[in-house]
Amino acid sequence: MLRLAAASLAGTAIEFYDFFVYGTAAALVLGPLFFPTFSSVAGTLAAFATFGVGFIARPLGSVLFGHVGDRHGRRPVLLASLLLTGASTVAVGCVPTYDTIGVTAPVLLLVLRFLQGLGLGGEWGGAVLLTAEHAPVERRALWTSVPQVGPSLGFLLANGVMLALSATLSDVQFASWGWRVPFWAAGLMALAGLWLRSSLAESPSFRDIEDHARVPLADVVRDHWRLVLLTAGALAAGYATFYAVTTWSLAYGTERLGVSRTVMLTCIMAAVVVKGSLTPLAALLGDRFGRRPLCMVGCAASALWMFPMVALLATRAPLLMFLGFLGSLLAFITMFAVIAAYLPELYEPRVRCTGAAVGYNLGGVLGGALTPIVATTLAERGGPVPWGVAAYLTGIALLSLCCFALLPETRPVRVRAAEPAAG
């Protein structure tokens, strides 16, 4: 389990590094470089639109790779998704800017971002399922929380590289070539991830399936459509909260509030460090008290914290901004620490890779793709404190809370049955 969890963690960290480094670049430099004829705000919106394309591609990737995972095994998904995401990320770092090739530049950016999203749509299902289906039932949430730390590590790595470049290069150097370095580095990391994953064994649950679904998506749509919609709506709040902190606030803080890139990145990264460190603890609580109760607590906390978070961001004070981000990310991880155990338990093994991944990635479209665009638009129309953004995020959290309330608890019955005896 330790070797498997480590390989899954490494892979998710690398793939989310690829995904996040684009979001950071979109917030900092892609607007002027690839949409120079737009105004500052319109250029940022256009860059965030290409960012959102990655989320739109993720459900398609979950269908494509979910079919492979349910028909041929979870292990091939891990290798193919990592290769696709790594190659497309390296290619982003090689795209000439608008000044060099004109409108072809943003078009190429759009295509490569789509391929990134396609690969990441398959990554989560493969990595999480391989871990979940090997894990002992009484500690399934804990073990599956290990690959869930991958997004935090990927974010820290992506933004750490960006922070180092921002601090050591001039604005001209950073805009000229510095922003490309993190994309090029993705190639080496992808090769390392492929080496780590090459020796993993196939999941026992997959090996035990005797009647594989011929078209897993058709079975999911026919038998589990309500479950997919509920899980997508339930996960929207987590995505919206995370990308409001890590992507929208970065652009808003640097462009509208005049806070330096270094300060904004440092505040966000510090909050992500704490969030990543507490992920296993939240997962242990999920093994002890159940998946759904923890998710509902996280949604409620998110709904209550969005207005304070926006108010603290508007102060421009680093410590207060950090506290605002931290509260939001703690609410987020209270939900997402157990999602990697919760979603696979909701679906039968023969369509689990497709069902869990489609629900997870549709939530990304609802919460992750739209949030930077909607929040930037609302902030532009608002006053000195963007209360509209807080209202939008609170509304999504309440919607997700209702969806979680309609989902069943899945913590294994034998674990719950053993608790009174243990006491």
Characterization of the model:
There is one protein chain. The protein is an all-alpha fold. The chain has helices at 2-34, 40-72, 74-92, 98-101, 104-134, 140-148, 150-168, 171-176, 181-197, 204-208, 216-255, 261-289, 291-314, 318-336, 339-346, 352-381, 387-406, 413-422. Helices cover 84% and strands 0% of the residues. It has 18 helices and no strands. The chain starts with a helix and ends with a helix.
Task: Give keywords.
mainly alpha; single chain; disordered C terminus; 423 residues
Summarize the entry for a quick read.
With 423 residues, the protein is an all-alpha fold. Helix 1 packs antiparallel against helix 9, helix 2 packs antiparallel against helix 16 and helix 3 runs antiparallel to helix 5.
Rg, nearest Å: 20 Å
How do the SSEs run, as a string of H and E? HHHHHHHHHHHHHHHHHH
Principal-axis shape equals globular
Give the total of beta strands: 0
Counting helices, strands and paired strands, the structural category is mainly alpha
Task: Calculate the mean pLDDT score and round it.
Answer: 85
Low-confidence stretches: 414-423
CA(first)-CA(last) distance: 28 Å
**How much strand?**
under 5%
- Percent of residues in helices: over 70%
Largest sheet report: none
